[in-house]
Amino acid sequence: MSRLENRIALVTGAAQGIGYAIAEKLGREGAVVYGADVNLAGMEKSAEELRQKGLKANAVELNVSDRSSCEKAVAAIIAKEGRVELLVNNAGITRDGLLMRMKPEEWDAVIAVNLTGAFTLTQIATKAMISQRFGRIVNVASVVGLMGNPGQANYVASKAGLIGFTKVVARELAGRNITCNAVAPGFIATAMTEKLDDRQKEAMLSVVPMKRPGTPEDVAKAVCFLLSEEASYITGQTISVNGGMYM
Ligand code: NAI
After folding, report:
1. What share of the chain is helix, strand, coil (3-state, %, to 5)?
2. Cα 120 from Cα 74, distance rounded (Å)
3. Residue 103 half-sphere exposure toward CB, CA atoms < 13 A
4. 192, 194, 196, 241: which to mutate for ligand 1, most atoms within 8 A of CB?
5. Where are the alpha helices (DSSP H) in the chain?
6. pLDDT average per 10 residues of sequence, the chain (247 residues)
7. CATH fold for domain 8-188+215-240
8. Where are the domains of the chain?
């Protein structure tokens, strides 16, 4: 049997990048995947692509920074499947700028999506998980949430916050058979890092002992492990997937 056979999974930000790779990996392990994204057209296209690959994938419209949108998405999955067992809070954005120049709107937007979005969806999904007496949650943080990074006060605060949030959810819900862990990817080749200029990319790679950027699949494998039976005694942890960039 596959590792996640018939588990009902909700993956946010799955239209592209790391979220897409996570959706694909979970699908390959037998999960019924609901990819949820603010970019509905992109999500529908990606879900169709996953179905073409023979996986059980569905597209859901979701803006994680809008509570009613989160409620609607989870309700729609439960109405169809009767449960939601795996939650991956992956949706994330950047609005980089040095502290002195960062606009309050840039701070707020990043916190709203990366941190408050995960809080909202976790709060809603764990209601169902508690009554099911089963749940597995993985939050996608970042290496910079562990080590800091100039020009990313909003993003780093959101990711460090997510790591703290992970520990609280783990402690509060361990007795309900719900685990909550985080992954902290390093420099991963996606649209998000494509925005960096060559100098920034070189600077990042120069501190990666493995001398290559990670792939979305590298991250997806760690997420899949944390959602699987093999990780059932692991909770509150942050697994780094960073080629040795931070130890
Ligand atoms: P990406 O920009 O390629 O994809 C992010 C996805 O999230 C997009 O499909 C986007 O439409 C969706 N999204 C944005 N705002 C949303 C909202 N309000 N509600 C629902 N969906 C929304 O980014 P990437 O690189 O795949 O990153 C995924 C996660 O991994 C993010 O949380 C990011 O912070 C994290 N990460 C990425 C790293 C990298 O090097 N690419 C490194 C460390 C962490």
Report:
1. 50, 15, 30
2. 11
3. 5
4. 192
5. 17-28, 40-52, 67-81, 104-110, 117-132, 144-147, 153-173, 191-194, 198-205, 216-227
6. 94 98 98 98 98 98 98 98 98 98 98 99 98 98 97 98 99 98 97 87 93 97 98 98 97
7. Rossmann fold (3.40.50)
8. 8-188+215-240
pTM: 0.98
Nearest atom in ligand 1 to 39's CA: 11
Instruction: Please give the structure tokens belonging to residue 96.
Output: 């980089």
**CA 20 to ligand 1: nearest atom:** 26
> In a mutational test of the pocket of ligand 1, which residue from 10, 38, 187, 242 has the highest number of ligand atoms less than 8 Å from its CB?
38
Q: If you measure from the C-alpha of residue 89 to the centroid of ligand 1, how many angstroms do you get, rounded to a whole number?
A: 10
CB 201 within 8 A of CB 146: no
**Which atom of ligand 1 is found nearest the CA of 187?**
40
